[in-house]
Amino acid sequence: MHNKTLRYLTILVFTIVGIFIIDQNIKSLFVDGYRYYSDCIDLILVYNKGVAFSMFAFLDESLKYIQLVLVLGLFGYMIYLKQLCYALPAGLMLGGAFSNIYDRFVHGGVVDMVYWHCGFDFAVFNFADVMIDVAVAWILLLNFKPKLCKNLP
Q1: From the centroid of its chain, how far is CA 55?
Q2: Quick check: helix, strand or coil at residue 83?
Q3: Backbone φ and ψ of 19, nearest 5°
Q4: Please, which residues have CB within 8 angstroms of residue 94's CB and are 6 or more apart in sequence?
Q5: What is the pTM of this model?
């Protein structure tokens, strides 16, 4: 195995595992009863049975298997791609995705806890969702600015 491939896989796997562990530990606080209420942001416990904004909740049990297949496909594609500049954002995305899918198997829905209601009501979300959003923005940036990838060794 080439040094570059080993470095790519190391970054990818450690990022996935790190995000998964951080997210699951945050979620366990809320499953165990932690709550916080303020004027703008409430930290509460919500089990989301769907995806973003509870879409596709009607798929019930099938949703977690559909998501698992999609995320495993993405994981396989990222291993095939082996571009070092994508290792960290792909790890963020996959770590968050695996953590949310894990929730579906263990809790019957994704554990969400951050409820923004300052000026407008927003969907309840979690750390994994934020990591997925950051990863998508990062990957889009890399695609629109390909020179950023070429500067890596």
Answers
A1: 17
A2: coil
A3: -65, -40
A4: 12, 15, 16, 71, 74, 75, 78
A5: 0.91
In degrees, rounded to 5, the angle at the alpha carbon of residue 126 between the alpha carbons of residues 118 and 65 is 135
Spell out the alpha helix ranges (H) of the chain: 3-31, 62-81, 87-107, 127-144, 147-150
Whether 104 contacts 65, CB under 8 Å: no
Are 90 and 78 in contact by the 8 Å Cβ rule? The answer is yes
The torsion angles phi and psi of 17, rounded to 5 degrees, stand at: -65, -40
Closest CA to 48 of 85, 118, 99, 117: 99
Active site residues: 112, 129
Chain segment 69-125, per-residue pLDDT in tens = 999 999 999 989 888 899 999 999 999 999 999 999 999 999 999 999 988 888 899
